[in-house]
Design a protein that fits this description.
The protein has 517 residues and is an alpha/beta fold. Helices cover 39% and strands 16% of the residues.
């Protein structure tokens, strides 16, 4: 390569390059000149490009472009909050803008840019590496631990795409799992799913591992952990110890989280279901296939190991957990209550009264009396503005099914076979209601079907005590929230309760309204 000699009138080397960063174009040109002309000296290259010789030397020494590097400055004010920033960014995974806002409330006076720079230089790579952490497998003995979790999916049901929640309860030792689904994730729904999961497994492990969802934990902080009271009461009823997974501890609940990926790939994706019932049926079929397939860790099928684990499970209690009744409605005069944009019928005996409602997995609506007895059940409608009616709620079932007094008497004797004075009640009722005794007995049987035996027997004793066998009288007694015999001095046939004024008694006015129905 021929290089022209410098002109006589050419300006001296540009001193602005001395000690400065060279541009990338000049850096590339210098290295190309030297590569093509190995014998070309630094002085000659400097003269050709009109730059300093030292700049040429630095360019030839550096294998990579020596770009500008900002000198790190220690922000003394920011260092005071370094631990707070680290915890917020790595542990709580908060956005930098949220961290800045929290720093301002703590008295931080620095700029927003300094916080962003600190996070990028010191914490950003650490957050990326958290997902690559290794850990040892977390193993448990037979009958030692349940693990539970749920995941949200969008599934095509018929012609619509609906959001559903798939729940999984798994035995830690055998990996035997039970799947279920719901249309919501309310706490009452989750407890119902757990109960059905316990029944599907046929026993109880000593403890259950959950995450930090508000349905389980009220305060998730490590030093001040507070369990949700309803969930703690649920665990206490079944005798299970609750435990939770701390953040960034994937090994503690991986047995129940990993199956959701397999569920999505082999069951949810590219699958279509005709109805909710079809989805539940196919989910149970998928459950059977998974439990009979060999597990890659244990090298045995969950069903095979579960046959051994069953011996270590605790027994289920005889009765289910009462559950949560966190919503109530008032029954209208047309025997209806409102829920989620629709109306559902209630037995006519509860007109004007308040009833508790409970959504069961978002699929069914259960309606309970104030004494927590199930009085109605409906399949929840997925649409809006509909009225769902059970015609039996508007008439007496016993009166229509049994046409004479003798058949009704047999039903009464069968229901209250443990009540010593059941025959006395029937005789007195027939003597007092001579015109139409079957009408009153049918009404009595119908209204007593919504209450437990203890409440019914208490009311029947009062009927014998005051020689009053009107079904309206019985309804008024059952409607009292706290029925106390020694507070009632005299009761007439019209259902009006007369209180002894000499006693210091205060009653809710609602009790008197009920008697007038």
């Amino acid at each position: 390569m021929k290089i022209d000699p410098p002109c006589a009138n050419k300006k001296p080397p540009n001193k602005r390059w001395r000690g400065k960063v060279i541009s990338m174009e000049d850096w590339v040109t210098i290295r190309n000149l030297k590569k093509r002309n190995p014998n070309l000296g630094t002085r000659k290259i400097a003269e050709v490009l009109n730059i300093s010789r030292n700049t040429v030397k630095r360019a030839l020494r550096s294998e990579n472009y020596p770009g500008y590097k900002r000198k790190k400055k220690v922000n003394e004010e920011l260092l005071k909050f370094s631990e707070f920033i680290k915890e917020s960014y790595l542990l709580k995974k908060q956005k930098v803008s949220v961290i800045i806002s929290n720093l301002r409330s703590k008295g931080f006076q620095g700029s927003d840019t300094s916080v962003y720079r600190y996070v990028n230089e010191n914490l950003k790579e650490s957050r990326k590496d958290q997902s690559k952490q290794s850990y040892e497998p977390y193993s448990t003995g037979p009958g030692e631990q349940f693990q539970y979790d749920w995941s949200e999916y969008k599934v095509r049901i018929g012609e619509e795409v609906r959001k559903i929640y798939v729940h999984c309860l798994i035995c830690g030792f055998s990996r035997y799992r039970v799947y279920d689904m719901s249309l919501d994730k309310k706490q009452s729904t989750i407890l119902s799913v757990l109960e059905e999961g316990f029944e599907g497994i046929g026993g109880l492990c000593k403890r259950i591992q959950v995450d930090n969802a508000p349905q389980f934990v009220s305060d998730a902080r490590v030093r001040s952990l507070k369990w949700n009271k309803s969930f703690l009461d649920f665990c206490g009823y079944y005798g299970i110890e609750p435990s939770r997974s701390l953040p960034y501890h994937p090994w503690s609940k991986g047995k129940v989280e990993n199956p959701f990926k397999y569920l999505e790939d082999h069951f949810i994706t590219n699958n279509k279901f005709e109805s909710i019932e079809d989805f539940i049926l196919k989910l149970k079929e998928f459950e059977k296939r998974v439990n009979t397939k060999m597990h890659l860790t244990t090298r045995k099928s969950p069903f095979e190991l579960f046959s051994k684990e069953k011996e270590y499970l605790m027994k289920l209690p005889e009765k289910k957990y009462v559950g949560i009744y966190d919503e109530y409605r008032k029954v209208t005069t047309d025997c209806l209550i409102s829920y989620m944009g629709n109306k559902y019928s209630v037995p006519h005996y509860f007109v004007g009264k308040e009833v508790w409602i409970k959504s069961k997995k978002g699929l069914e609506l259960e309606i309970y009396s104030q004494s927590r007895r199930l009085i109605a059940k409906h399949k929840l409608s997925l649409k809006r503005g509909e009225i769902i009616i059970d015609k039996s709620h508007y008439k007496s079932k016993s009166y229509n099914e049994s046409s004479n007094y003798e058949k009704l008497s047999l039903l009464f004797m069968e229901r209250f076979s443990g009540y010593e004075r059941n025959k006395d009640f029937l005789i007195n009722l027939k003597n007092q209601k001579r015109i139409e005794p079957r009408y009153h007995l049918s009404k009595i049987l119908d209204v007593l079907s919504y209450y437990d035996d203890a409440q019914c027997i208490s009311v029947l004793n009062e009927c014998l005590r005051y020689n009053n066998y009107s079904y309206r009288f019985i309804m008024s007694l059952l409607s009292l929230s706290e029925f106390k015999r020694d507070n009632i001095d005299h009761i007439r046939d019209n259902g009006v309760i007369m209180i002894d004024k000499s006693k210091n008694i205060k009653r809710n006015l609602e009790e008197y309204k009920i008697c007038q129905n």
